[in-house]
Amino acid sequence: MRWCVPPPVGDGEWRSAVRRTVVSAVAVLLLVSCGSAADPDPEGPWTIVIVSDSFALGSWPERWAALIEEDLGVDVDLRNHQRSGFVDYEAVIDEPEVRADLAEADIVLIPPEADHLRRACGPDAGMACVEPAAAEYAAAWGALLDEVREINPDARLRSAIAWAWVAPPGRRDGLRVFMEAAAEVTRQHGGVVVDVDPIMTGPNRDEEPPEGWTDEYGHFMRGGAQAVAEAFHAVGYDD
Description:
Layout: E1 3-4, H1 11-15, H2 19-34, E2 46-52, H3 60-72, E3 76-82, H4 89-93, H5 96-104, E4 107-109, H6 115-121, H7 127-151, E5 156-161, H8 172-188, E6 192-195, H9 197-201, H10 222-234
Parallel strand pairs: 1-6, 2-3, 2-4, 4-5, 5-6
């Protein structure tokens, strides 16, 4: 089990025109720190099943699948059960089609639903609300992952720490507490968590994404989509 985060780089690098090169280097370093991206006995096709909020919007899941295809020489069947807005994951995984897909998955990606924190604490709440809300969500997250594991105990589980780039700087610390609580639970369930925040907001998580990396709603575009795809690809396949 691994918890993969991009290595730190200087602030200037993240603001410079070479940020795409830096992110590519991040992906290479993740490979070194998180294991080889080559499966010892690849067989295809591979099935990736995504259950997600709008984190999985845009082209990055397809780019991730393409990287795996290139890596392993196998076909990848991507089944993206993304939902926009506030997502009730329990209801989604109870849908017959989603449940059937999860049972067939080689990789399952399911990131936490950050809107739970916004609903629980509102826009101006401090840590006095965030910490118990994070603990409550972590317990519910564990129950959800238990159900995913019941459906498919062998799938490689992936998740993310995300959404700092859409939060005002003053609220990013609270969001991180929330995300890290869920991440720890994911690790306990044998999953790998990719920390997307430093890719988008720099090593101190206090910057904004480069121009053109996200749309007005914070969904990944172009360079952002490629960077996220590379980060998920870099964690490899051998859990």
